[in-house]
Amino acid sequence: MKKGLKITLIVLGSLVGFILLVLLLVSLLAGPIAKSYVNGHGEELVGRRMSVEKVGLNLFSGHLSINGLDIYEEDKITSFAGFDTLDVSLRLLALMAKEVYVNHITLAGLHLNAEQNGSTFNFTSMLDHFKSDDTLSTPKDTTPSEWIVNLHQIHLRNGNLSYTDVPRGSHWGLNHLDLLVPDFCIGGKQNTNGGLSLMLSEGGSLNADLGYDPESNDFTLRLALDQFLLEQVQPYLTDMTNIEHLGGRLNVHADVAGNLDVISQMTIKGDVSVEDLDVIDNNGRSVAGIGNLSLLINNVNLGENRYDIQYLVIDGLTAEYHVYDGHNTMSDLLKPAKPAVADTASKAAEPKAAEPAKPMNFTLAQFELKNSNVTYADHTLPEDFVFPVKNINITSTNMSMTGDNNANLRASLPGGAHAMIRWHGNISDWKKNQSIDIRIKNLHLTEFNPYMLAYLGQPFKDGTFSFVSSNRINNSELQGKNQVDIYKATIDKRRKDVDAKMRLPLKAALYILKDKDEKIILDVPISGNIDKPEFNYMKLVWKTLGNLIVKVATSPFRGSSDGLQDDGNGGMILPIDVATPDFTSEQFYNIDRIADMAIQDETMSLSFEQQVPADADSTYMKRVEIRNRILSSHLKQLGVPEERLSITNAALPADSQPRYIIRSKIEGLEMEEGQE
Fold first, then answer.
1. Are 577 and 644 within 8 A, CB to CB?
2. DSSP letter (8 states) at residue 501
3. Given 3-state DSSP classes, what are the helix, strand and coil percentages for the chain, each rounded to the nearest 5?
4. Would you say the pTM of this structure is higher than 0.85?
5. What long-range pairs does 380-383 form, CB within 8 A, spacing at least 24?
6. Long-range contacts, 478-482 (Cβ 8 Å, 24+)
7. Which of 624, 632, 676 lies closest to 651, judged by CA?
8. For residue range 435-470, what is the model confidence (pLDDT) as tens digits?
9. In this structure, what are the phi and psi dihedrals at residue 447, rounded to the nearest 5 degrees?
10. What 3-state class would DSSP assign to 418?
């Protein structure tokens, strides 16, 4: 070997050996030096005291390990964050090609305790430590980076994170946090994927798997949230609601797919279930609950406004809806919205014209509500109205926003009564075509006494009620056929302590309407245009019933065909025989029936007007007076109060036969349009 080459090889070998020795010394000394520097200058580094047990560095293999790192709170005693082990392996030579290539990152035993008090966190001082003192604005560099980041086998094991919102009293704990990301790439072409699993300290677990293609920007996400306790979100509802407690468990299993360039077009499918939901208001009252809710989603696309649901099953729904003066159970759950503060310092930007929303495409193959109970209570009446509806079952198949739909309801009502409802109609164009059939059987009339008192001032004493209703809407025109079937209805005395909204002759009407078996069947037609501002369905029902009752009670001849005739002015004609001052048995029969009506209802007054020919002689007039005295004595003997009885004489119209005109008047009754 030539001498020059030999010398060159010796020099190069010595240089390599020296470099390796330097690297070895650096590897050996870097760990202790780093440990000493961290333990002594932690506040200079991060603004908090730090401690570390061991630091290891191997420049040959690109391996870094840190053990027992702790960052403390401002009291320098309490641990804020830290970990047991951090192990990192890099390809150092790849840095020369502007690539950060990490073989693996393992972080074990991570712990973090975050606290929030208003807008301040227990790590705010650390953020302030890293703020730059340079107040000059630096133009943002938009040049694409030439560096490629390739991270592999990122593994977070047995992490424990804690978050506390002090003012709200909310605490979240994430235990046994396990995160595995096999591949993560920035700037390259390799796909990114990863998985996350953790246990919530208050109950529940979360698992997630993510896949991402950097070339197409497509992503997939598989999410599984199991046995999540809903009470953990209750503190965050206090600003908007008066919910004292939110109980229940939530399960979500979802597959999400989409593209980051058009995130609104992502698709979602999966299932959601809720168990033992319970909503308690700030009065300690349970206002709503669900035993079990199951939802299966075939496909949801928010951008397309498309919702394809396979089924929604709700089992064991409970609800309490109470109405008070000016508020109700649902409105009590919501806190009043704070008035918005106008920003006068800056000029509001011109709003952009919103793109027209796509029509909702909603389909639900199967809907079922079963074993449910709802209670309606009205506390605005003289006496509370409480009406529980139990064993509610609703079924529907193939529901959609367009086209006709069908639904059936069955429920149990108080006192052994039951209800059935059938609906057929269009949701999106509901004014065009709707059909609702209602059947209520064997409901006790006394259940409605609070409303009877409020509106009419008289409660029911007894009676059962059945109701059949058929309502059709065709191009906004409502046509309803309602049949009321009442058996053995009796009315109690009018309550003097109640200022009723209406005064109707109920007792008189019932007296007339009942047949020999004490049964009443009423046909109550309802019609109107639902687009008119004054349209009110219940007002129409009350008005129709009121008109019917008033007509029957104030014109008893409508309920009797025993010789009484209508005089055309709301009165009844009772023919008389001028040859005798007395009445026939038929006349007494009709008088007795009219008297009974007045006796049944203390609001009714009777007037008997005997019409006398203008040329009547003294003999004729004597019979007139005798006849009036007999009538007065007979009516008083039957029990018609004198103060509600009037017997007078008047001139007989031409071409008329001698007669009595009998009229009735209801005290405090204002006749509606269309009434006689």
1. no
2. S
3. 25, 45, 30
4. no
5. 380/323, 380/324, 380/325, 381/450, 381/451, 381/453, 381/454, 382/450, 382/453, 382/454, 382/495, 382/497, 382/498, 383/449, 383/450, 383/453
6. 478/526, 478/527, 478/528, 478/529, 478/530, 478/537, 479/525, 479/526, 479/527, 480/525, 480/526, 480/527, 481/523, 481/525, 481/526, 482/523, 482/524, 482/525, 482/526, 482/541
7. 624
8. 999 999 999 999 999 988 888 888 999 999 898 989
9. -60, -25
10. strand
Residue by residue, DSSP assigns 546-561 as HHHHHHHHH-GGGG--
Nearest to 596 by CA among 556, 650, 648: 556
Centroid of chain to Cα 278: 14
pLDDT at 22: 47
DSSP string, 305-365: TEEEEEEEEEES-EEEEEEETTEEHHHHHBPPPPPPPP--SSPPPPPPPPPPPPPPEEEEE
Two structure tokens written together for 131: 């703020």
pLDDT score, position 384: 94
What gap in Å lies between CA 641 and CA 598, rounded to an integer?
A: 9
The pLDDT tens digits for 205-248 are: 888 888 888 778 888 999 999 998 888 888 778 778 888 889 99
User: Quick one: three-class SS letters along 246-291?
Assistant: EEEEEEEEEEEEEEHHHHHHCEEEEEEEEEEEEEEECCCCEEEEEE
The pLDDT of residue 275 = 95
Return the DSSP state at 502: -
Q: How far apart are CA 90 and CA 103, in angstroms?
A: 6
Exposure pattern of 275-298 as b/e (b: 16+ CB <10 Å)?
bebbbbbeeeeebbbbbbbbbbbe
Between CA 156 and CA 196 the distance in angstroms is 9
Q: Name the DSSP class of 652.
A: P
Token duo for residue 109: 């035993």
**Structure tokens that stand for 411 in this block:** 């429920």
Alpha-carbon gap, residue 614 to 651, rounded angstroms: 6
> Parallel, antiparallel, or unpaired: how do β-strands 572-575 and 659-666 relate?
antiparallel
Which one, of 159, 82, 162, lies nearest residue 121 by Cα?
A: 162
Q: Which residue has the tokens 């926003």?
A: 401
End-to-end CA distance of the chain: 138
